[in-house]
């Protein structure tokens, strides 16, 4: 789910043509799988909440994803980044790319629908521009992109509908979803500032990110259990009351979320970027909320108000404008 801003930053590590063997699976197939996996992650979290807390979901998701990525890294003969100079920045980067957003999205879905939480993910490009103003002051965004940020903010306000009480979503829940999407933008901007030359390629970086996430979430889950130990016998105890096959669905949903949406998806993401480039890869950002809305509506019976749909359209248009190249960049590319 939602690491799509990495597409533009990891492109610098893309191998030169002919340096690697042609993949067995076409990048177009991996692209489609990525959209489905990350789009369905909000459905998986909603199902997981039937028996698990948000912190439990985030922790199990990261641990499962870490096991998958480390296994793939070992099979590929790769290695983790080395040196404290890299890891001290990786701690910040990993926090904003895994522990923080994964927990926020799960928490948001205790208060809003999975469809609306997925829409919150679409704010990542807007947050990237705002974070760049602070962390990358030498890269001034164009007036067009700044205007798109303003329009995107208005789209978020339209979704929140603060002028009405009857139809507006839970503002805290939707705010957590927006903050989760914004976390990716902050994290990848931080990466560009401090870690752009440290990526070893392959699965080295995502493995490090998930290890950092595990380092944050394991103690967090223990503290959360200790505070609620009167209701939960162990940190891994569930609160579900359903029986039969339904009792296993939340666990299976979160395991799928970790193995597929946090493990396998990392590998596919980098394959798509290396094969098709950053521009194509960045379009995943726009399709994730579409899938989450469709699944939430068709599978869970959720519904969105007209304001939420209209606001999503505004945010999507703003994100497309932000990620599209400026005229100067287009002219430079055509003259190259």
- The poorly predicted ranges are 4-20, 332-336
Percentage of residues in helical conformation: 55-70%
SS-based structural class? mainly alpha
> How many E strands?
0
DSSP helix count?
14
First-residue to last-residue Cα separation: 35 Å
- Mean pLDDT metric: 83
State the order of secondary-structure elements, H for helix, E for strand.
HHHHHHHHHHHHHH
Return Rg in Å: 20 Å
Number of domains: 1
* Main beta sheet: none
Strand coverage percent: under 5%
Apparent shape:
globular
3D structure, described in words:
By secondary structure, the chain is mainly alpha-helical. The protein has one domain. The chain is 69% helix and 0% strand. It contains 14 helices and no strands. It has helices at 6-9, 27-48, 54-75, 84-108, 114-120, 124-135, 143-160, 171-194, 204-227, 249-276, 278-282, 284-298, 306-323, 327-335.
């Amino acid at each position: 789910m939602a690491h799509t801003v990495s597409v533009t930053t990891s492109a610098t590590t893309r191998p030169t043509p002919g340096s690697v063997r042609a993949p067995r699976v076409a990048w177009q197939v991996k692209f489609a799988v990525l959209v489905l996996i990350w789009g369905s992650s909000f459905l998986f979290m909603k199902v997981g909440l039937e028996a698990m807390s948000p912190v439990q979901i985030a922790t199990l998701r990261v641990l499962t994803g870490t096991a998958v990525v480390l296994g793939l890294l070992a099979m590929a003969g790769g290695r983790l980044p080395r040196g404290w100079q890299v890891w001290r920045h990786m701690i910040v980067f990993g926090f904003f790319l895994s522990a923080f957003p994964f927990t926020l999205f799960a928490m948001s879905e205790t208060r809003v629908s999975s469809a609306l939480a997925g829409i919150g993910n679409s704010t990542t490009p807007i947050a990237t521009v705002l974070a760049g103003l602070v962390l990358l002051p030498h890269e001034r965004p164009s007036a067009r992109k700044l205007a798109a940020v303003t329009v995107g903010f208005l789209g978020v306000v339209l979704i929140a509908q603060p002028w009405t009480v009857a139809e507006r979503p839970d503002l805290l829940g939707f705010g957590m979803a927006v903050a989760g999407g914004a976390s990716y933008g902050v994290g990848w901007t931080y990466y560009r500032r401090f870690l752009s030359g440290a990526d070893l390629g392959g699965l080295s970086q995502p493995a490090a990110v998930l290890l950092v996430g595990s380092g944050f979430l394991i103690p967090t889950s223990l503290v959360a259990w200790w505070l609620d130990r009167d209701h939960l016998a162990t940190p891994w105890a569930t609160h579900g009351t359903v029986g039969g096959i339904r009792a296993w669905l939340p666990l299976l949903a979160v395991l799928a979320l970790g193995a597929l949406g946090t493990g396998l998806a990392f590998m596919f993401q980098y394959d798509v970027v290396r094969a098709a480039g950053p521009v194509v890869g960045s379009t995943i950002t726009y399709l994730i909320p579409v899938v989450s809305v469709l699944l939430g509506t068709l599978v869970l019976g959720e519904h969105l108000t007209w304001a939420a749909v209209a606001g999503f359209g505004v945010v999507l248009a703003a994100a497309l404008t932000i990620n599209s190249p400026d005229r100067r960049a287009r002219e430079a590319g055509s003259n190259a």
